[in-house]
């Protein structure tokens, strides 16, 4: 009997899976034929990988009509967990064998996560509303790739995303953009909601989330047991489910995102990967998340000395706000990341396991050049005081609360 009859997945659940696939087919049959050109926004994470492989299987088996063109946009952030990056490479080979067009979408050098933080000095993101990273390393490059593609095709694209919110979302008719909700895959909600309104894409892009109603256990089941079988396409997706421990943890809501994402409460995915002896050599990656936290501390940053006038002459909301990383902090961060990379790769060589790339030679040299040139983010000169300097407090109305005692008093 087939391998997809796992212990937790039989009877009613199997029926639900079949129903879920049926709903996916119906949504693609309803919306697909109106669009000759399809794109798939794929990050290598669990939801978008399930979406990608499911759609290819449905097309290959004639369950849905093949579009005139299909382009897979692989969002390569350079921040993916190594097992997922490796799986993505294998899946790309499998897509190429089928003659499917793939575009690898990566942010320009200065906008990449590591270069932006360690070269330009922008602090690591720390909350969901103000995070710059998703837009910069996922959305903006995807927007550009799509603009280029719709121009080439001179038509409209149906962009298929891996947004998956389960049954509650169907009830709510609401798609959360936050990647911290319900184990969603970072970026997919943004692709769904932000891209259709992006400059140059309005009216030229429709989106569809054909796995919207899937439960997370169905995603694991598909990736681990169905998709790897010849009858479902022979895909290299099991490694993705294994990376999250999805097979054992039926309802685990593992969030998919960057290595050491500063916004995730825990490094759950990385922790699971490290319990697998094959990937245990990646343990030094555990040092990345604490580094981002440390770099946000005042001792590594500069701050505005007092009131800040904006370009339009108005006063900025938060006087004495903390800003970019000092040049020393950036150099320290670069050393730490390179040290982590070296430690992983030495262990990889010893154990004949795949090497990893956190910062490649080109990125390292760009980071060093930006630090050497004393580059600061817009609105900063670098001559501002260190953020841990004790100073009189300035309020937005200009009032100043002096220090209770001065340095001389203390002396
Ligand atoms: S996973 Fe985290 S670090 Fe990566 S883009 Fe999303 S929020 Fe930013």
Relative strand content? 5-15%
Coarse morphology: globular
Spell out the helices and strands N to C: HEHEHEHHEHHEHHHHEEHHEEH
Ligand species: iron/sulfur cluster
Radius of gyration: 24 Å
SS summary, helix count: 14
CATH 4th-level superfamily of the largest domain: HUPs
What would CATH call the class of the largest domain? Alpha Beta
Overall pLDDT, averaged? Answer: 86
Q: Tell me the total number of β-strands.
A: 9
CATH topology of the largest domain: Rossmann fold
Structural category is alpha/beta
Q: Strand order of the main beta sheet, please?
A: 3-2-1-4-5
Largest sheet: 5 strands, parallel
Low-confidence stretches: 1-8
Question: What is the total number of structural domains?
Answer: 2
Helix content: 40-55%
Distance between the termini: 82 Å
Q: What is the CATH architecture term of the largest domain?
A: 3-Layer(aba) Sandwich
Please, what is the oligomeric state? single chain
Question: What can you see in these coordinates?
Answer:
This protein has two domains: 233 residues, Rossmann fold (3-Layer(aba) Sandwich), CATH 3.40.50; 121 residues, no CATH class. The longest helix has 25 residues. The chain has 411 residues and is an alpha/beta fold. The chain is globular and about 75 Å long. Strand 2, helix 3 and strand 3 form a beta-alpha-beta unit. It is built from 14 helices and nine strands. The strands form three sheets. Strands 3-2-1-4-5 form a five-stranded parallel beta sheet. Iron/sulfur cluster binds next to helix 5.
